[in-house]
Amino acid sequence: MAFTEFDTAELPAEHRFDWWREVVARGVAPTRITSDHAADFAGSAGSLDLGRLQITTMSFPGLRSERTAGLIRRSDPETYELTLILAGAMVVGQGRNETRLCAGDFAMWTSSRPYNGHAESGPVIGDSRAIILHLRRALVPLPEAKIDRLLAVGIPARSGTGRVLAQFLDSVVHEAPVLDATERERLGGTGLDLTTGFLAHHLDAQEYLPPEARHAMLLARVDRFLRDNLSDTRLTPRAVAAQHHISVRLLHHLFRGRDESVAATIRRLRLERCRADLADPRLRAMPVQDIGARWGLVNAATFNRLFRTTFGVTPGEYQRASRMKAALFADDGGSRTPQCCGQCETRRRPEG
Fold it and tell me: I need a labelling partner for 230 at 20 to 30 A (CA). Which of 73, 99, 264, 330 fits?
């Protein structure tokens, strides 16, 4: 199976911890794991194969992990393990670096050197959740000596290239159950380009990247910029190109492999935001034309025409239908954006 996910709740209490450790050993690398919660371990683990990349998702209470020289000699997949913390707090150490991480941080370590870490638990911090991207070292076009500088060092995932990569991983995991083989292979290539671009950015080593990796990261940054600035009526292909210090011609070239142009993408994203707002009960008092203007569609007639062409009904009709539906069914939702606990730090280990 391309995507598998299991929860320890499906097993008898006495088998849960051993099972979870075995899953981690197969999905990541053989690691010595201990926990004060071993008697009734509550955790989950999932794996996703993207061809050139593999992803592991996991949740777990407080634990300690160690990858020793003996375990490395026994088995080494020769990977970089890039971990995105979604919840909880963790400490990871490799070489002379030791880093305390919280939700919204990346950290990387290599399977080929001793490693240790522990996840904190308690009534305030709660259980830990993470996404681990397994990156074969042979696929990374950056010098290992440079990458060593990032091992066991916290890298924020709340802005810039970190945010781009974190949202990509989160989206892929969320959609994993419905992805077919072709989509997984394509996303694996995109993920590899984004990851190497992310690493190169933090190492100031973009010159080592192939053109496709540079373009993938640039395109992802453009996508993020579009989503963050849809309300700006001055958001045009020329403005987007100027913001990213590229020519309009290169911007259009980046979008050439897609089904829609830059302008069409902006229009679609704006209409999607409008549709969401029209269905939001918290905005029921807001006039339809104000919702359009809120997302850069200031001309009421144009907004009405584009919405009807795209969704088959006018904005007003959609809003009224949404109100009727809300009266019949209760609906709620949550945010997937990790929030920082404000306690992150990286420090050098003492010599010896």
Answer: 330
Strands 79-87, 3-7: pairing is unpaired
Greatest Cα-to-Cα distance within the chain, rounded to the nearest angstrom: 72
The one-letter amino acid code at 313 reads: V
Distance CA 276, CA 89 (A): 33
Q: CA-CA distance, 226 to 237, in Å (whole number)?
A: 10
Coil/strand/helix, residue 100: strand
Gap between the Cα atoms of 19 and 12, Å rounded: 10
Token pair, residue 125, equals 């911090």
Instruction: Dump pLDDT digits (tens) for 316-346.
Output: 999 998 888 776 765 454 444 444 444 445 4
Q: What does the alpha-carbon distance between residue 6 and residue 47 come to, in Å, rounded to a whole number? A: 9
3-state secondary structure of 351: coil
CA gap 110, 134 in Å, rounded: 10
- E strand or H helix at 72: helix 69-74
Please state the pTM of the whole predicted model. 0.71
Question: Quick check: 119 and 89 in contact, CB under 8 A?
Answer: yes
